[in-house]
Specification:
With about 200 residues, this protein is α/β, with parallel strands linked by helices. It has 8 helices and 6 strands. It is globular and about 50 Å long. The termini are far apart.
């Protein structure tokens, strides 16, 4: 098992690098990969003929979640009139048990958006990410799936260490609060860096 190959982690070492080192894998040749079938891609192309912006606002514990109203403000700046992703549909994703929490996004956002929480397979989600313009989300499994799918990925970090758990791959970027704090991502994170990144990939 892969977990059995993990040796002592060096300070600040990316978790994937720690696993690879324990397994004797050459990291210079390793690349994250997301798998899907042509049928999965055909399904998401039918759903979204125009590549979307994906948000994943839920994490496995509350302290890692950027507040929903700030996701809404960010979506307005990116997908609203004159935004860098104005033409891209807005899609929120999560698991079936997270549906009710994700629905709260609509309490803060008046524009059009689609929510997929348990109605797509993992392979279809990977296909959607492969096709997406950009993914923005908390430190979560979906964030790692997005970067493995080759999607421009921005992970938002608060209490967890982005040096260890950040998105690993050529299209992954992370944004954390100054000072690498402990606690939560409740404090305002700077929008401008995220908006600038949106303009780069637009």
């Amino acid at each position: 098992p892969v977990l059995g190959c993990v040796g002592p982690r060096k300070g600040g070492e990316q978790k994937f690098e720690s696993v690879a080192r324990g397994c004797g894998i050459n990291m210079s040749q390793a690349r994250p990969t997301g798998w899907h079938t042509p049928e999965d891609m055909a399904c998401v192309r039918d759903l979204y003929p125009t590549p979307p912006l994906i948000l994943a606002p839920i994490a496995n514990w509350r302290g890692k979640e950027w507040p929903m109203d700030r996701y809404a403000r960010l979506a307005e700046k990116l997908c609203g009139p004159s935004g860098p992703l104005e033409q891209s549909p807005l899609v929120l994703i999560g698991s079936a048990p997270e549906r009710e929490m994700i629905m709260r996004f609509r309490d803060h956002y008046e524009g059009p958006c689609s929510i997929h929480a348990g109605d797509l397979t993992l392979a279809q989600i990977v296909a959607l990410m492969t096709r997406a313009r950009m993914f923005i989300g908390n430190d979560s499994g979906l964030m790692h799936m997005a970067v493995a799918a080759g999607c421009p990925t921005l992970g938002l970090f608060g209490p967890s260490d982005d040096r260890v758990f950040g998105p690993w791959g050529p299209r992954g970027h992370e944004r954390s609060r100054p000072g690498r704090p402990a606690g939560s991502v409740e404090r305002p994170a700077p929008h401008q860096g995220i908006i600038a990144y949106g303009r780069i990939i637009a």
